[in-house]
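User: Hey, my collaborator sent me this sequence without any context and asked if I could get a structure. I don't really work with proteins. Can you help?
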Amino acid sequence: MTEELSLRERKKRETGRIIWTTALAMFRERGFDAVSVKEIADAVSVSKMTVFNYFPTKEDLVMHPMAEHIDEPMRVVRDRPSGVTPHAAFRAHFIAALRRFDAATGLNAKPLVRDIQQLVTKTPTLMMRMLAYNGLGERMLADQLVSEGATAATAEIMAGQIMATRNVLIHLNRGTLDGGRAPAEVLPEAIVNAERAFDLLENGLGDLFARP
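Assistant: No problem. I've predicted the 3D structure and written it out in structure-token form, which is a compact way to encode the shape of the chain:
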């Protein structure tokens, strides 16, 4: 019985993978808005309802890998060791992810990753979904900080600053790859940028670039 369920689960996952990769290929070729869910279903030889059973909305056909990272900032802070500040935990997490060339850092040039990033950037509805994910992740992080004793205002300020720092670093990394550089070449620079960004987050801007 266990083997039967395992086989069924593997088949289910494979069907989901085929739907997803087929949809992405069609979106890349024709654009997100020009492809209907029915066309995707027909291409995979399943019903439209089957597609929605795997992906509740059309946007989920593109965004579901990113959805898995929504609660990541909250988890990093929640699971940090005793004595470690939230921003220090996130610094260590982000730099470790850079060294792995994790797609979530923007420092990943795999064709599938780049295709998804470009598709999101070019499609307003997907950009709106990305902004919603970012807002939800920030809200979850703020709630975690409140659960640790921060006031609501302090938690929102801290969460906003941590998320903004992360987002700027992702933007910088993607920009360097857009310029044709390889992730391995960019890595040392990306780490320096991350260290600098989190130093500023930790110590504040102070009198940086004050006019004489």
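In plain terms: The two ends are 77 Å apart (CA to CA). You can pass these tokens on to your collaborator as they are.
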